[in-house]
Amino acid sequence: MQKSSRYIHQRPEWPAFTWRHEAIAQLLTDVRHRQGKTLGRMEQLGFSLRAEATLETLTLDVLKSSEIEGEILNPEQVRSSIARHLGMDIAGLIPADRHVEGVVEMMIDATQHYDQPLTDDRLFGWHSALFPTGRSGIHKITVGTWRTGPMYVVSGAMGKERIHFEAPEAAQLNEEMNKFLTWFNKEEMIDSVIKAAIAHLWFVTIHPFDDGNGRTARAIADLQLSRADGSSQRFYSMSAQIQKERNAYYSILELTQNGSLDITAWLHWFLSCLDRAFASIEETLATVMQKARFWEQYSSTRLNERQKILLNKLLDGFDGKLTSSKWAKIAKCSQDTASRDIQDLLEKDVLVKEPAGGRSTNYILKSL
After folding, report:
1. 62 half-sphere exposure, CB direction, 13 A CA radius
2. What CATH number was assigned to the domain covering residues 8-281?
3. Tens of pLDDT along 198-211?
């Protein structure tokens, strides 16, 4: 394998990052303005709506951060786990497997305890939560401490591999992480959003773990963005936006690793991505407000627990078509009970039969 030219962590001036302020000043101003408008708008909502928006956002954040790494988690398990951690009383919560619980625990700790110092022990806890079995897939890895071997990020067929990036040697990790954590926990004379961008890049550059470095870097960025917001409530998802721009994300990281300590291009990309992430607030708000309108409209309608659970699933975006047999399976009831539940909702004008015919009758929410 042919090595790249010197990486940024091998430069004598590392980690003295520099950037051209004039190149990002206007973008940073625009991002900060949009951030303020977003937070102000959400503050106008009631507590329960803000909590619901936080649940939606954190669920998206966990799902998409794992998806970036090619790992698909169960959305209902993620949502249920987050709701339990936030103490939210929601109908239809389901158990989550220990892997989902671990990913959620890391994100909850990062965003809900953003004002706590970031330490090596805290990072080890996150890493242990990410890999509860001590394995990444079928491979045994070092968990809950820094890696002990080399770290290469490569692609290509065997014998024709291309090294995108080589991380610092294992022997350097204690020193490297001490520098990073000291900087991260210290009050800096830089904008807190810029600090989130630098923290993300710096941690990815060190790549201190055997696996899970990307997800941990994004959790660190979320922690710092929570500090920038001054709030544990989350209304936008940086990870969801990164997932949409995954190829560009990896390209700018590789370009930066092989460049100089001038990280203007990385900061510009991070800020632009964050700016686009604020647009997602509209989708989150639309979902939250639709649910709020729905339950307000049917607040005096008598519903049993099975009906509440299935209606919430429809409001959250049911995967596929809702039939009586699916109702019975999800609600853990008989087919006859499911049919009675559905018929009751049809009579109360909550559900309607989907116009499209077929072998099975499908049901959808009546338009609000």
Report:
1. 30
2. 1.10.3290.10
3. 999 999 999 999 99
Secondary structure (3-state) at 15: coil
Multiple choice CATH, 298-365, 1.10.245.10, 1.20.120.80, 3.40.50.300, 1.10.10.10: 1.10.10.10
Per-residue pLDDT tens digits for 77-99:
999 999 999 998 876 788 899 99
- Tell how strand 162-166 and strand 152-155 pair up: antiparallel
- pLDDT score at 151: 93
Contact 140, 156 (CB under 8 A): no
Annotate 126-155 with DSSP letters as a single string.
HHHHH-TTSEETTEE---SS--SS--EEEE
Q: What CA–CA distances, in Å, run from 153 to 3, 173, 198, 205?
A: 11, 17, 20, 11
Q: Where are the domains of the chain?
A: 8-281, 298-365
112-124: average pLDDT: 97
Does the pLDDT value for residue 8 go beyond 60? yes
Q: Are 64 and 237 in contact (CB under 8 A)?
A: yes
User: How far does the chain reach from its first CA to its final CA, in angstroms?
Assistant: 60
Evaluate the omega torsion of the peptide bond into residue 150 and state whether it is cis, within 30 degrees of 0.
no
How far is residue 202 from each of residues 14, 236, 248, 256, measured CA to CA in Å? 10, 23, 18, 11
Instruction: Give the span between the Cα atoms of 223 and 268, in whole angstroms.
Output: 20
Helix (H, G, I), strand (E, B) or coil at 363: strand
E strand intervals along the chain: 135-136, 139-140, 152-155, 162-166, 351-353, 363-365
Q: Which of 56, 74, 104 minimizes the C-alpha distance to 219?
A: 104
| Pick from 249, 269, 287, 276: nearest CA to 34 | 276
Contact 238, 221 (CB under 8 A): yes
Tell me the whole-structure pTM to 2 decimals: 0.82
Virtual CA dihedral for 115, 120, 121, 124, nearest 10 degrees? 110
Task: Let me know how long the chain is.
Answer: 368
